[in-house]
Amino acid sequence: MKLDVNALGTFYRMAQEGAGLAAGRLTQMTGVDTQVGVTKLNFMRGTEIRHDFDDGVENVGVRVELSGGIDGHSILVFDRGSAETIIEALLGDSNAGLGDELSQSAATELGQIMNNGFVDGWADVLETAIDVSTPEFQSGTTASDFFGDLEEAPGDDDLALVFQSHIEAVGAETGFRHYLFPEHESMAVLLERLRSNEGIEYDKLEGFDRMAEQGAEEVAKTATTLTGIDTTVEIRRLNFVSLEAIPQEVANEPLVGVAFEFDGTPSGYLLFLFDEQSAREIVDAMVPMETDDETDEFTEMDRSAIKELGNIMASGFLDGWANVLDTTIDHSTPEFIHDIGAAAVDPVVIQLGESQDYAFVFDTTVVADGQAFDCDVYAIPDESDLERALNDLDVSRIDETPTTAEFADLEGT
Amino acid sequence: MKTYGSEPGAPESVQVGISELVVSEGNDTLKSYGLGSCLAIALYDPGVAVGGLAHTMLPDGDAAENSDLKPGKYVDTAIRALLRRMVERGATYTDVEAKIAGGSDMFQFESFGEGVGKRNAVAAREELEKLGVPLVAEDVGGSHGRTVEFTPETGTLLIKGNEDIGVTEL
Question: Which InterPro entries has this protein been placed in (chain A) (predicted)?
């Protein structure tokens, strides 16, 4: 099974189109204004998908089986509170809840209409017909309550392509997640049809995941060593998104960041973004003698401390990649930025936009226990370089790749 | 970000996401957050209070394949699409005026050449000149981000920068 950017681009459009139709129908049915948040294609391990359900919240879902243009299962998941809000709007009864048969069947009906919205969107993009089974109402607190019995659900270590869309009700804390689990065989046929060039062996995506893993581990390790703040990797994801979606995902608030361009196979851009409070804590940890002035400004010394941290994290991250890909990747000197989040990201997106419409984004969040240290890492490689790097990758090497260089080796960079 | 369904009549605040364009009228506010090198283009006809805002990414749509699908992504195609949609809603072509904001160059990377933000501002001036639309005000360049808010009724383009920059009204 091989895939290429053209095929992924089509999947992306399917996800986007489907989410739009589903949101439109939800509005039509309930009168609740809705908007579609960022749509993503995620390459996720089974363990990570299961982790999404591990927040102890009770969820309800509506699941359908698909056949025809695509075989598999489509599942719409909403937390119980959100579901109740919508059902109350639908039935015009503020105490409807989800306890009785009437409201459960209303929820199922609603889920079915939204599932159909998604499916119609995909069918439009694929220009084919997709059949949908009768819906199943589900509820529970773990992932296995929703797709534990599905053959095509990925095992813990399997890398699955997950369509992820978020639909929000305007002005209400109501959101839906949507998962599509296609059957392997059906996916292979689709990919074959949509592919417009040689493409990449699906197995080589394992290399992506190893890159993401090693890069992330290095960042957390470096941050801990330099600041003395004990940090861990909280999220590590590989997304395939349209370029426009990248700045939209960044918080609409002032952030402090360090940006790099990197050069090699692959080349691209690397950004570390901190919220202001985290940046402040980092400065305090790294520049202990400075008196705590209460101004919001970052002094020249503060800036150079953050740039220095960024620089060493960048070296660690890219060494992690270079190690998996068995190559060298150089990076530029750090550029400091303190501005509203999206503004830090759009120059990179614009530059890449000259030659590509989509990007693989290695999205990592590093956090600290009991202390403000939230660092979002965005690594956005040039697409053709990345394809080349992966094609050159010897899959048999991946498992042998040792953990990357010790921290001491990085000090000279 | 596209919203599905909303009350007709009441003034709305509409978010114009990157690569999008929205035409509206009266007291609606059109808002784009966190422009760095992106360029916000606001066109309006003061006579009929019809106007639009585009949040553009790249200078040259005529050279791109998909610009007909996403006119808001490119400076040149966005200006033409805004004009067309405004005329459809009652604006008079020859009365339309333009304001632009954004086009910063935040980073001095080698791969960025002369600057990605600068290219967008240059493209906008050229396209407006070509179409005979007067550019009445601009706040472009520098190395800081901007959030813009546009009201078609008054033609006011409000620009918020970070703490050092403050608020500018065009």
Answer: CheC, CheC-like_sf, CheZ_family_phosphatases
